[in-house]
Amino acid sequence: MFSPAAWDINFKRNCEVVDIAPIGLSSWSFLCLPPEKAIEKVHSMGFTCVELWADSPHFWPREYLHLSKTKELKKLLKNFPDKNSIHAPVISLADKNPGFRHESVKQVIETVKLAQELECAYVTIHPGYLFPGMQGWSPMPNCWQWTVEAFKEITAEAEKSGVILGIENVKGQIGSSPEEMIELLREINSPNAKITFDISHANMEKDSRIERFIELMPSEMIQMHLSDNMGEKDSHFPLGHGNIDFKTHIKALVNNGFCGRFIGEILWEEKKPFVGAEKFLKLTEKYLILEEQGHPKE
What we know:
- The chain is an alpha/beta fold.
- The chain has a single domain, classed as TIM Barrel.
- The chain is built from eleven helices and eight strands.
């Protein structure tokens, strides 16, 4: 079991004694490979942890919550020196259709259970899209309440297993701004509810959202999703191929108290599927090597 207290100790340890930040890659970057082969590839490239993509064609929990599959998968995950994570299926906890909403909660809870089985410390979750109003009806109050209720149900399971949830900021979803995320965490009111900060999602908002997240919430972030874009769409470029100033933002983030992990989410190309991840890996030293005091090198 990986408790909130253990997370706090690990979080502080990253700042105090680790001179290189944990750097991982999402298995989503290698959807072209069979699931287990994707993990092996991430490890062979030198990443210190992996985030499993818990959806087809990779690690959909309903297929993997079986002893025969989890035993094999657990062996592969033990090769990584740092704690691993799972990205829950991208569904909608705020869906206006109650059937879809309840199924979304069920699948996220199954992801939390899979994380416990695999001894993964964290589960990344998208809150769900807001729906446009219809015939003068505004969905926002309902969507907000549905999302809070969903996370209360999910965190109840996470608290039993010790898994830490990283609620991800996503454009067009609840919690996309730091102010909304602060309120969402307040209403969920669980020590197991934290943040996965996606800097590329924040870059698409064009309202100093990256700076506001870094200023207001670094101590609540368990990890940071890294990819680049030009601010127009979620391109998932390797670092340095868009317009995000990673050196400035990561230095500010660490200076403000962030001691979490960095997870690459790099788009793969059909004819050269590993090039994007290789480029990402080459650039991690430039942006993510930390000095002994926990500050990026100049």
